[in-house]
């Protein structure tokens, strides 16, 4: 009688325990979809970052000891956005830009990105990043007259690189492709784009 | 024979229950925050650095004593906040309406985070947003009153505003990640 109880207990514990752990381990296998990165909180002591990242393929999240979340890594803040530069509330020029923004590639940059935007959907991140770039562009272009933008686009690029690049770096982001156009506001009939140039080198330092 | 089967079943059920309890226990004892959150453990006295507090903050998996300790998660992601200030009058021109866009988050700096825990633990993001909105509006009005700038849509105004807001938010354990002027137009 007692023997049956003990053996039954042992078998029940072993079978159930095995099934549970196998189930949890299988549930911990995650395939990382394209355009995403998986952030993992890992254990261990010391001052090192508790975050690690898996960029592609399949990964195992250790049940109970690690926690992972998927984060989108391709951000296109709208095909083309425009900001109006004002002087005391009066529109002076309109700046249009197309940019592609990506999270930084190294773990430190990705950690900043995850801490800034973790848990948000791609569309929401795109909107926020677009507003950050708009604000940065407005801040920089406000200091230039329309003529100065046309005559010295390299200065605009330099200032944008410094200001917007720094802002984006704080968020773990960098600018990949860029194009900027500036025109007077309101646009005069028959006028052409005042300035249109590619912002090569406009990336986070 | 029948009673033996009964004992097998009872033993097996008890074994399965123990296995489930074991899993539950591990789940309760070890708490892991997602990468964008921090764990706030309270219930005892914790020594972090030179200070002893009633809570401790961890970004790593943490062993937690059940019943004695309580665990909360603190979201440290950016909170977007838009602030509109009406009827701004400076030296040049008439009154304007200015709108700023900011990204603020709970700081991960060990020096600042206790302030944030005391103020914002368990609060929805809207509460953080409200505090930020009030701080930016107050700092903007102070700056307008000082008349250090000629225009609100001058880069220097937003720059100064950013410095002042950053200092004020630091006292609350918040970190200003971005502040920019989003719109400036004449009052209708």
List the helices and strands and how they pair.
The complex is a heterodimer of chains A (205) and B (188).
Chain A: H1 2-27, E1 29-32, E2 36-41, E3 51-54, E4 57-60, E5 67-72, E6 81-87, E7 90-103, H2 107-117, H3 122-141, H4 146-151, H5 153-170, E8 173-184, E9 195-197
Antiparallel strand pairs in A: 1-4, 2-3, 2-5, 6-7, 7-8, 8-9
Helix pairs in contact in A: 3-5
Chain B: H1 2-29, E1 30-31, E2 37-48, E3 51-58, E4 62-63, E5 70-75, E6 79-88, E7 96-106, H2 113-120, H3 125-146, H4 155-170, E8 174-186
Antiparallel strand pairs in B: 1-4, 2-3, 2-5, 6-7, 7-8
Helix pairs in contact in B: 3-4
Question: Would you kindly provide a brief summary of this structure?
Answer:
The complex is a heterodimer of chains A (205) and B (188). Helices cover 40% and strands 29% of the residues of chain A. With 205 residues, chain A is of the alpha+beta class.
Q: Give me the Rg of chain B, rounded.
A: 26 Å
Work out the strand percent of chain B: 25-35%
Query: In one word, what is the shape of chain B?
Result: elongated
Based on secondary structure, the structural category of chain B is alpha+beta
Largest interface: A-B, 60 and 61 residues
Helix share, percent of chain A: 25-40%
Distance linking N and C termini of chain A: 76 Å
């Amino acid at each position: 009688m007692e023997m049956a109880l003990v053996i039954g207990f042992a078998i029940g514990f072993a079978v159930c325990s095995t099934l549970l752990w196998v189930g949890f381990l299988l549930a911990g296998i995650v395939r990382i979809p394209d355009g995403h990165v998986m952030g993992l909180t890992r254990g261990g002591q010391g001052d090192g970052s508790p975050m690690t990242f898996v960029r592609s393929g399949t990964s195992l999240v250790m049940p109970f000891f690690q926690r992972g979340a998927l984060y989108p890594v391709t951000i296109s803040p709208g095909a083309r956005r425009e900001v109006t530069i004002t002087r005391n509330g009066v529109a002076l020029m309109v700046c249009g830009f197309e940019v592609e923004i990506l999270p930084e590639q190294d773990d430190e940059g990705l950690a900043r990105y995850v801490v800034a935007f973790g848990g948000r959907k791609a569309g929401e991140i795109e909107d926020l990043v677009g507003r950050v770039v708009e604000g940065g562009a407005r801040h920089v272009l406000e200091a230039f007259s329309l003529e100065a933008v046309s005559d010295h686009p390299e200065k605009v690029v330099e200032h944008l690189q410094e200001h917007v690049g720094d802002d984006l770096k704080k968020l773990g982001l960098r600018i990949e492709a860029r194009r900027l156009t500036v025109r007077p506001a309101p646009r005069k009939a028959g006028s052409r784009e005042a300035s249109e140039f590619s912002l090569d080198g406009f990336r986070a330092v | 024979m029948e009673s033996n089967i009964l004992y097998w079943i009872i033993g097996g059920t008890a074994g399965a229950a123990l296995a489930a309890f074991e899993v539950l226990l591990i789940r309760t004892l070890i708490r892991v925050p997602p990468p964008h959150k921090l764990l706030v453990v309270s219930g005892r006295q914790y020594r972090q650095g030179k200070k002893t507090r009633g809570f401790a903050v961890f970004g790593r998996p943490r062993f937690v004593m059940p019943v004695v300790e309580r665990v909360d998660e603190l979201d440290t992601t950016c909170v977007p906040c838009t602030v509109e200030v009406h009827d701004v009058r400076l030296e040049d021109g008439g009154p304007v309406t200015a709108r700023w866009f900011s990204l603020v988050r709970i700081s991960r700096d060990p020096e600042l985070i206790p302030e944030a825990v005391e103020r914002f633990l368990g609060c929805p993001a809207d509460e953080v947003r409200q505090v930020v909105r009030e701080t930016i509006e107050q700092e903007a009005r102070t700056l307008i009153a000082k008349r250090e700038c000629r225009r609100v849509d001058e880069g220097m105004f937003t720059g100064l505003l950013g410095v002042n807001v950053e200092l004020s938010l630091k006292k609350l354990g918040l970190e200003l990640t971005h502040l920019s002027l989003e719109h400036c137009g004449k009052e209708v």
